[in-house]
Amino acid sequence: MENDHALEVFSFLAWNEVPDKKLFPKPVRKGVVAVADWIRHSIQGTSPSSFYHDQYSDEVERTLRTVEKFEGLSVDYLPAVREMRAALDEPRLGKRSL
User: Fold this and answer.
1) Tens digit of pLDDT for each residue in 32-50?
2) Cα–Cα distance, 26 to 22 (Å, whole number)
3) I need a labelling partner for 92 at 20 to 30 A (CA). Which of 7, 50, 72, 98 fits?
4) How far is CA 91 from CA 5, 13, 85, 87, 94, in A?
């Protein structure tokens, strides 16, 4: 859950139940941060003309759906989710933020 493969795990967890949810809260939080890093890296390497209006919506949906399933198990996901949201504002290749 600490690398680019977090998205694959979120694909599974978003749509499937696990027998023991207590094993997942901290790894899920780390996975959200890994998704944020992946989004940031992807944006940095993508030409502005290659972007489309709902880019990353599937990845964000899977991630948030998973987070919802593990809420209330003593882990605060809000900082990690905010980090993922901030990653979506990463300046694009060839564009500078003001």
Assistant:
1) 999 999 999 888 876 666 7
2) 9
3) 7
4) 24, 30, 13, 9, 8
Task: Give me the residue label for tokens 């998704």.
Answer: 35
Q: Of 16, 40, 18, which is closest to residue 88 (Cα–Cα)?
A: 40
The CB density around residue 87, as the number of other CB atoms within 10 Å, is: 20
pTM: 0.86
Residue 24 CA: distances (Å) to CA of 28, 36, 52, 96: 6, 18, 33, 38
By the 8 A CB rule, do 59 and 98 touch? no
Whether residue 13 contacts residue 24, with contact meaning beta carbons closer than 8 Å, is answered with yes
Separation CA 37–CA 8 (nearest Å): 15
Looking at residue 41, its amino acid is H
